[in-house]
Specification:
Layout lengths: L2 H4 L6 E6 L5 H15 L5 E4 L10 H13 L3 E5 L6 H13 L4 E4 L21 H11 L4 E6 L10 H13 L4 E6 L3 H13 L6 E5 L5 H11 L5 H9 L4 H21 L4 E5 L5 H13 L12
Parallel strand pairs: 1-2, 1-8, 2-3, 3-4, 4-5, 5-6, 6-7, 7-8
Helix pairs in contact: 5-6, 9-10, 10-11
The structure holds flavin-adenine dinucleotide.
Amino acid sequence: MKISDIYSNARFALSFEVFPPKTPEGLALLYRAVEELSTFQPGFISCTYGAGGSTQDQTLQIVTEIRDRFQVTTTAHLTCTNTTITQLREWLQDATTRKIENIMALRGDPPRGEQSFIKVDGGLAHANELVTLLRNEFPHFGIGVAGYPEKHHEAETLETDIDSLKRKVDSGANAIFTQLFYDNTDFFRFHEKCLASGITVPIIPGLLPILSLAQIQRITNMCGATLPQNLATNLDNAHEDPAAQSAIGIEHATRQCVDLLKNGVSGIHFYVLNKSEATIKILNNVRTLLPSHSNNHPPSS
Ligand SMILES: Cc1cc2nc3c(=O)[nH]c(=O)nc-3n(C[C@H](O)[C@H](O)[C@H](O)COP(=O)(O)OP(=O)(O)OC[C@H]3O[C@@H](n4cnc5c(N)ncnc54)[C@H](O)[C@@H]3O)c2cc1C
C-alpha cells in the first residue's frame, strides 16, 4: 500500500524503521525482530540507506525480503549523498522492478569525515529535488520525507526549516516522518507551525526508545535532538543498571505515545534499531493505558 493510502480517511498506522546490519548474524536478528513487530500490523516497515556506502546495496534486498516473508508493506530510504542522478534513476528502476511501493526521500548527511554536504557533479543538493525527480519520473511511488521538530541542525531557524519542508511537500511528498524527540511539546509546536505554513499531509512523530544513557547521548549528539535534563538525570542515576535504564526509556516512551495518541496523531514511527523488545513493551503498555482509545489506538497484535 502507498503511504498516501496508509494514512487516508484519518486511519492510524504504526511504522517501524530498521537499518541494514553488517553481518549475517545481524541480519538474522533483524528478521526475528521484524517477525515479532509484524504482529502489530504496521502500516509499513522501512529500511534506511547507509550513509557510508557499505550497506547501501542492502536496502532494497532487505525491504523486498521483509515484504515477501512477512506480507507487510515496505518503504525503502534513499539519499543523494555521493550519488549522481543517473545512479539514483538506476536504483529507483531496481526498486520499481521489485515492486517496492514507497520511498523515503532524503538528502542524506555528509559522507564520513566531511563536515558539510556537498552535491556531487550530476547529483542533487536537497531532498525536494529528489521528491521532484520521483514525482516526474517514478510517479508510482508513495513518498515520505524527513521533518525536524527541533529544526534540522543546518537550518538557521525552525521557520526557515519548515519553509524547506513545505518545498518537499509541494514537490509531491505524501507524509512527513519526524526526527526523534523526547519532549512532546517540541512536536506539538512543530506540528502547529507546519499547519500554519499550509502543510496538510500527515506529520508522523518519530520515537526512539532509549536503551541506555550512553546510547542516547551518542545519538542525540549526532542528530541534534535534545535529551530533557530530568530524563538524563534519571538515566544517570541508574548508570550501573542497564535494565533500569531501559525501563526508564520504556516508561518515558510510553508516556510520549499516550500523550501523542490522545492528541490525535495519524501514526507513530518507531526507530527500532533492529530490536523488538522495547517497542513491544511500549505498545503493550499503551494498550493497557488506553484500552478504549478506539480511533487512535495502535492496532492490536
Ligand atoms: C525519518 C528519517 C529517516 C532518515 N533516514 C536516513 C537514511 O536512511 N539514511 C541517511 O543517511 N540519513 C537518514 N536520515 C537523516 C537525514 O539524511 C539527515 O537529517 C540529513 O542531514 C538531511 O536530510 P533531509 O532529507 O532532511 O534534507 P533536506 O530536506 O535537503 O534538508 C537539509 C537542510 O537543507 C535545508 N534545505 C532543504 N531544502 C533546501 C533548499 N531547497 N534550499 C536551501 N536549503 C534547503 C533544510 O532546512 C535543512 O537544514 C533520516 C532522517 C529522518 C528524520
